[in-house]
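Attaching the record inline, Q. Sequence:
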Amino acid sequence: MKIRAVFDRFSPYEWEMSPEEIAKVAKIPVGDVIRLDTNTSPFIPEKWLRTLSKDVHKLPVNQYPDTRYTELTRYISRYCGVKDENIIVASGADEAIDIIIKTIVDYDDKVVLSTPSYPMFRIASQIAGGKTINVPRRNSPPFADDVDGIIHTSKENRASAVFLCNPNNPTGTFLEIDQIRRIVEELDCGVVVDEAYFEYCGKTAIKLINEHPNLFIIRTLSKAFSLAGARIAYILANEETANKLNYVRPPNSLSVISIRLGIIALSDVRQVNRWVKYILKERDRCFKALSSMRNVKPYPSVANFILFRLLKGNSEEVYRQLLTKGISIRNLNGVEMLDNCMRVTIGSKKQNNRFLSELKRIVD
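Structure, as predicted:
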């Protein structure tokens, strides 16, 4: 059997441990595991699930969903303040990334990445046969996008695409909208802005999509909306560009159950805002607590997670010790610019207190 040559020197996505695996390491029940490694929400949307349970017996699960996602698209349109024609629905942000790459990246095309950032930008580009080029983030201010470097590298290599994560995962940094405008206006290639964490910072490049057909914005209901398990995302783009994306996207990647749950969630944005307010308050509290630890340097974040560096000790060992207590955070040691760094998702107050207590015991 032939395997594509692209996989000869390919670094795959690093899968997180399952809750069952973590529980086995910690020798605790699965229900006691604290997952602070995936940047998801600690809140289970019980009210939405109760509403879904009342509707689920009426859902036509024997049929494929509406291939245009008409009703869900209408609710996304209201939430974002754009026309239905600007929206492409996808099954999670990863499918959105894949759809865009399939639309604008040919084999051997160059794709420019501001790094470190979300690894699926690289992985999806390379699987498509694209050649990724990293533009390292600046040291001052810490982890800021090198806008001049991105523009120069893209022009020099005649790139087909540039990927930006805003706010950026895993650094928590933000690229101001006027700088995104500059990148979009100075480059002819596709510029993809992943706004998965938009709700936590409240700033967006949406206003630019109708002016610039080379701009793609990715959003998701996985983070602030507490629906990571439902796999609902969408792309926002110029109407002409969105039509091209429709050539590529699968017709039925969301289930009728996920569609209904997404509609219920988008009908209750006030609840999302309450969750966001809670997380931001906890993020600020956790940042202060991390700053007070002698051997920890946290970096400011506008997302629902905090990146921090260990000034003493080893992140591999800290990760292992936290795991034995049933607490999983993201160990980023070995990632470019992130030696001895870790990323912690902001969870509930109880979860955060457990994490802070255990980390302080280990590193102080």
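The longest helix spans residues 269-291. The chain has two domains: 5-45+270-363, 60-268.

More tomorrow.
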